[in-house]
Specification:
Rossmann fold; alpha/beta; 361 residues; 7-stranded parallel beta sheet
Length: 361
């Protein structure tokens, strides 16, 4: 199958460092290639040599796109489509198209988009909904948004995942981390403003203020502003590559998914599944997909409101006192990734979704 892939242009390659979108894109494209599919893109990811570059000339690109079996667009808060979709009559000349929705247009506020620009973008989504033959959504909540707010009639939910082989526990044999402490990590995959760093710092301040000397160590990994997290009980490790991330997470016990209320609640956070793959217990602010798994693991108490740092501290102190529960939750989470929430399953379901919109060949 010949697939033209859109949605990882200069914004993701240069403006946003270490974006989780890069990991998602590379994992999907690698697995599609492994299954024998031929991939083309206007902006091939630099590390994926098997992705061919589409022609740059207008006529040459149109002719090349018409030779594809499928057009696949990764959609974040903006559409990565080109000028050709503005012409209704031209749509019938092109192959079927799938949109992969990873966040809602309102998420643009974290990339500096103004309300008027976001509203205009929503209208653009609605106008071009006619060119989308199927919308792959990373959560049920996002699928409902796509149908109700963007006019996308046909949706398929395919949650994100992680790689249980990449995050194999036991890789970190160093003494960088105090193994007697409860090591808690707040991971960020980008420098966008969708991480609730203020909530994390409020937790750190309360931890400093408690009278009893708890043995909880707080860590950040990612492009956090050092000025915002300059507290004596926060260890700042900076940015690490995804290739080295397993060595860091293997030294941790608890992972934090902390987001402000709003657009982030529609997503399927990659860090959540990486935490699970690494065998960490997780504390999260409200997010429907995370909440479903926490119910399955019998730990709904670890879902806390985004305005309640005291509740997060209470959960951390309880986990520090019950290390056996931490191990049990870590084992349950990792098994869930091995069984279902992994990139191989995402690729298989994606191929199934593609087959569902293509004519019999």
């Amino acid at each position: 199958m010949r697939i033209a892939f859109f949605g990882h242009g200069k914004f993701y390659q240069t403006q946003v460092r270490a974006l989780g979108a890069r990991v998602h894109i590379e994992q999907i494209l690698k697995r599609l290639s492994d299954r024998g599919h031929e991939l083309w893109s206007s902006n091939p990811p630099p590390d994926l040599e098997f992705v061919e570059r589409l022609p740059t000339g207008r006529l040459a690109r149109i002719n090349h796109l018409r030779s594809m079996d499928l057009l696949y667009a990764r959609v974040d808060f903006e559409l990565p489509l080109g000028w050709w979709w503005e012409i209704d009559a031209a749509r019938a000349l092109f192959p079927k198209m799938i949109w992969e929705l990873n966040c809602v247009p309102e998420f643009g506020q974290y990339a500096g988009r103004k309300p008027d620009a976001i509203d205009s973008n929503i209208q653009y989504f609605r106008r071009l909904a006619r060119v989308c033959d199927l919308a792959i959504c990373v959560s049920e909540q996002m699928a409902a948004y796509a149908r109700d707010n963007l006019g996308l009639k046909k949706t398929k939910v395919i949650p994100n995942g992680s790689d249980p082989v990449h995050f194999q526990p036991g890789r970190n044999s160093s003494t960088v981390f105090d193994r007697n402490a409860l090591n808690v990590v707040f991971l960020s995959g980008s420098n966008l403003h969708n991480q609730n760093i203020f909530l994390f710092c409020d937790v750190a301040r309360r931890l400093l203020a408690i009278e009893n000397n708890s043995n909880i160590k707080l860590h950040t990994i990612g492009p956090f502003d050092h000025k915002l997290v300059s507290l004596p009980n926060i260890e700042i490790h900076g940015i690490t590559s995804y290739e080295n991330l397993p060595y860091w997470l293997d030294g941790m016990d608890v992972g934090l998914c902390l987001y402000p209320p709003g657009p982030c609640e529609y997503a399927s956070p990659l860090k959540f599944y990486d935490y699970l793959a690494a065998g960490l217990a997780v504390i999260s602010t409200p997010q429907s997909q995370v909440g479903e798994l926490m119910q399955r693991f019998n730990c709904p108490d670890l879902m806390v409101n985004a305005d309640d740092p005291e509740a997060i501290l209470e959960r951390l102190l309880a986990l520090e006192a019950d290390r056996e529960r931490v191990k049990q939750l870590g084992a349950l989470g990792r098994q869930a990734v091995v069984d279902y929430y992994n990139w191989n399953r995402v690729a298989e379901e994606t191929v199934g979704a593609i087959d569902s919109v293509l004519p019999v060949r």
